[in-house]
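Researcher: I'd like a structural prediction for the single chain below. Treat it as a standalone chain; there are no partners to consider.
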Amino acid sequence: MEPTRPRYTLRGEGDQLKGGLLHALDARDVFAAGPRRTFRWHRGQRHYPGRYWSATTGSFVGYESRLELAALLLEDFDQRVVRIASQPFELIADRDGVQRSYVPDYMIEHRDQRFTVIEVKPRRRLEDPEIAGALEWAGEVIQSRGWGYRIVTEPDAALLSNIRFLAGYRRAWLFPPGAVEVAAACAGEARTLGEAFRTAGAALDDRPSGRAIVLHLLWSHSIHCDLTSILASDTALETP
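Model: Treating it as a single chain, here is the predicted structure.
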């Protein structure tokens, strides 16, 4: 029997499901749809689902585990990413003569209008041949649509710690534009993070605000430093 062509389903308005052939699925419809899987909370559950407010999307994006939240933080920080969808669609396709169903964790749109589907898995689970084979199958089908496919595992601990910390300063509307410009000018002349804190605080006559705005500038990529080492006052600032 000839295998059926890969199909998809999306969750539309009023939780109605709609579907069709995968090759005809428009990415714009994916980002307009709701999460394909319903997020559930109950006492005693092993995972920690929730919703994260994304600076990239200006809205909440769901996650189903702490590892998914870690991946979401890193995508939100990536300035090349312009849209993020959680549990974006259901893929239905044949694998080894059996029809399989698969819902990836995220889909992102890049600034250059490329699209990437992301699966988040603990590194230890990729050692399971069945799981590794299923993800390889899913990746091949999704890439046949012309989209990228990426498996994400546990990130570098120092990088994640830094991004999680900087995410507390991601909301741009909390900072007066004039103050941001002043702090950016100070940080642009500073050699270290501590020096940027001091000079911005002095220029604004408000040390806490100066420090917060400098950290916002790091989140927004207006200034740069090595984020693979834990941030400290002597962290060197880099020239873009």
